[in-house]
Amino acid sequence: MSNEKINAQVIAVFPNKVRIVVDDLEDFKVAEESLKVGSYLKIEDNENAILIAVIENFQITVNSIGSRDHIIEAFPLGILRGNKFERGGDSLAIPPKEVRPAGIDEIKKIYEDSIEETERFTFAELSSNRSVRVPVNGNKFFNKHIAVVGSTGSGKSHTLSTLIQKAVSGKSGNFALNNSHIIIFDIHSEYRSAFPDANYIDTSNLILPYWLLNSEELEEFFLDTEANDHNQRYIFKEAVVANRIESFSGGADARRKIHYDSPLYFDIQKVLDYAILKNTEQIDSGEEYQSGAKKGQPKTTQGSLFGKLTNYVNRLENKINDTRLDFLLSDRAKKITFEQTLGNLLGYSDKNSNVTIIDLSGVPFEVLSITVSLISRLIFEYGYYYKRLRFNNNPSEKVNNDIPILLVYEEAHKYVPNSDLMKFRSSKKSIERIAKEGRKYGVTLLLASQRPSEISETIFSQCNNFIAMRLTNPVDQGYVKKLLPDTLGSLIDKMTSFKQGEALLVGESIILPSIVQIDCCLPEPSSNDIPYWKLWRDEWKALSFIELKSEWHK
Ligand SMILES: Nc1ncnc2c1ncn2[C@@H]1O[C@H](COP(=O)(O)OP(=O)(O)O)[C@@H](O)[C@H]1O
Ligand SMILES: [Mg+2]
What we know:
The protein is of the alpha/beta class. It folds into 3 domains: about 10-115, no CATH class; about 120-205 and about 335-545, P-loop containing nucleotide triphosphate hydrolases (Rossmann fold, 3-Layer(aba) Sandwich); about 215-290 and about 300-320, no CATH class. It is built from 17 helices and 20 strands. The protein has helices at about 105-115, 140-145, 155-170, 215-220, 230-245, 250-255, 270-280, 310-320, 325-330, 330-335, 340-345, 365-395, 425-435, 455-460, 475-485, 530-535, 545-550, and strands spanning about 10-15, 15-20, 40-45, 50-60, 70-80, 85, 100, 120-125, 135, 145-150, 180-185, 200, 280-290, 300, 355-360, 405-410, 445-450, 465-470, 500-505, 515-520. The strands form 3 sheets. Strands 9-8-20-19-18-10-17-16-11-15-12 form an 11-stranded mixed β-sheet. Strands 1, 2, 3, 4, 5, 6 and 7 form a 7-stranded antiparallel β-sheet that branches. Strands 13-14 form a two-stranded antiparallel ribbon. The structure holds adenosine-5'-diphosphate and magnesium ion. Magnesium ion binds near residues 156 and 157.
């Protein structure tokens, strides 16, 4: 394109806006490419820096001699010096020399050159030009926590599926299974169809031994923590520790170190027996009745806890007999080993798998928090101890975890809400700990939520990669805006009008904040959309109430 044809001038530069006036729009474009909102512009200065800006709006004004001017306002994304790209637009030397549209090939090159090929992880294309693939730096992306936010139906579940499907299919050599390890907490049974080869765990085959719960989780589960009863707590703790010691088969040194939080077997039935004993205890006073019907029998007095533990005994009995809690309390849960439990969660079972889906849809609501807490904590502690083990074996090693894990929480506001309610205490604590420290031990979070404003701020503020999809609730929008870098300008405001699968991708792993279309996943997660109209127009369907009842009462 010749220089005479360019008839555009920069008339104003602000930190978050560049205003350009164009006389003849026809001449101001790159051959074959039409200009629209979302197209890119290149603005050069005299120091070989090129500002890349994205068009936000067009206006037409009539100038003093009666002809029309076209005003274009663009948002500065960053500055290109040689092949290096820096965020922001403030370092452009003023006045700028030249402005022209950036061709697709130039934009492609910016994205391509931004990341070494071996580090590229690509799951989306530029929304304004679908022929431009948008890679992120896969190491940076998975090394920092990831948040996917968007209203229902914006495409979060599909995005999660796309990300995970791409992650498990990336290979640096010719082998069947790569070394990716992803655990999905699936609250609506959505993901099995997207990952047919996954290690699939639901309440029928989940075994999560109660004896792996730490003291806080144990108390939340077995005690009426709200009653804050010291007797209960004391008797419980005493019995748990005593039975751990009794059941322990290791050496005396290790035995002495057993405590309330040790992840060692104890028999819950023995804990109940002890509570019953204390609740009915009669203490021999050493004297005898001198007269009356009991003459000659030993005189007893009631133990100090006599009758005081009735509620606690009932509660324990109910728990032990509740078949819905078999995954925690059954004989299988008593017999499974620590190694098997951890192996199952990490995909090391009969058949190794990259993806483990933990279907929580059958877990009773009152134990959801401790279930999620226990699994999350085990994975975190895996990272911690595995690092320690590797460090002991080789102190000079730089990467202390060669088997890093991604934990995926769908509907994260359900496990880590922005509230201090007791019933979420455990899961919130475990996940917050991973948010704060997980990175050091190779444990990363991927959180998806339709209510970002209801997620614990501690967790959100630790996320570094954001995939913000269509978000319509103003409270959530405001909240997400606050979390994103304030240099994003009006890119954020587009969030309200995104199409399905469209997202604002922001974070250290990507060269420019970009509005992208996420690739479709295959196969898809199962949808929660029921086609009412189609189903209602069908003929009346039979319903087996007998089968329904047996499922209900299982
Ligand atoms: N990347 C995408 N491209 C095209 N359509 C998509 C994409 N992601 C999602 N969709 C469509 O949007 C709908 C809602 O997606 P879903 O992932 O269930 O949303 P959410 O989990 O946010 O409720 C689905 O019917 C799906 O077909
Ligand atoms: Mg969903």
